[in-house]
């Protein structure tokens, strides 16, 4: 019985020691530091963001019931809105409350002229987009279904 207890104690001690050594072995590795992105990487990222923004706006505009001329105007308004919102978010504010007020003011005032040109249903969709209620994935699924139906 004493030998059995001694054997369990030695095994427990051995497993504990090996686990600590494995943990310390990983800590000795030199951590990699993050480098500042190069100008090329920054330009590439900005191009990707612009392409993504254009794709997002195109997907949203396809849900609207306006004619082509109105859709082009809405596209220009949305592009300018996102650019202005990005500029507001980049500005340094003393408090987050001030930033929220500036974004709210932009949300309320930017599309006032557009409301006179388009239908109320489309304006509600734009307000939903501003609030973040537009689900792009669902829109892509609907497009795929339409394409499948047209093929058959």
Would you give an account of this structure?
With 152 residues, this protein is mainly α. It has one domain (41-151). It has seven helices and no strands. α2 crosses α3 (68-90) and α3 (68-90) packs antiparallel against α4 (96-110). The model has no long low-confidence stretch (mean pLDDT 84).
Summarize it:
The protein is an all-alpha fold. The protein is 80% helix and 0% strand.
Number of strands: 0
- What is the structural class? mainly alpha
Q: Helicity range of the residues?
A: over 70%
User: What global shape is seen?
Assistant: elongated
Number of domains: 1
Q: Could you give the order of the helices and strands? A: HHHHHHH
| Model regions low in confidence, pLDDT < 50 over at least 5 residues | none
Kindly provide the radius of gyration, computed on alpha-carbon positions and rounded to a whole number of angstroms: 28 Å
- SS element count, helices: 7
Major sheet summary line: none
- Terminal-residue CA separation: 79 Å
- Share of β-strand residues: under 5%
Overall mean pLDDT: 84
Attribute tags:
7 helices; 80% helix; 152 residues; mainly alpha; elongated
What layout of secondary structure does this protein have?
Blueprint: H1 2-27, H2 39-61, H3 68-90, H4 96-110, H5 112-117, H6 120-131, H7 136-151
Helix pairs in contact: 2-3, 3-4
């Amino acid at each position: 019985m004493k030998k059995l207890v001694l054997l369990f104690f030695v095994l427990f001690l051995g497993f504990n020691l090996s686990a600590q050594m494995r943990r310390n072995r990983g800590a000795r590795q030199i951590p990699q530091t993050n480098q500042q992105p190069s100008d090329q990487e920054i330009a590439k990222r900005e191009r990707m963001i612009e392409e993504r923004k254009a794709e997002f706006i195109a997907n949203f505009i396809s849900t609207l019931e306006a004619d082509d001329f109105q859709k082009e105007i809405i596209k220009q308004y949305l592009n300018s809105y996102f650019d202005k919102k990005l500029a507001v978010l980049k500005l340094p504010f003393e408090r987050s409350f001030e930033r929220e007020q500036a974004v709210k003011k932009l949300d309320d005032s930017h599309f006032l002229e557009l409301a006179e040109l388009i239908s109320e249903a489309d304006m509600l969709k734009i307000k939903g987009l501003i609030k973040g209620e537009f689900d792009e994935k669902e829109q892509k699924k609907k497009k795929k279904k339409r394409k499948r139906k047209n093929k058959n």
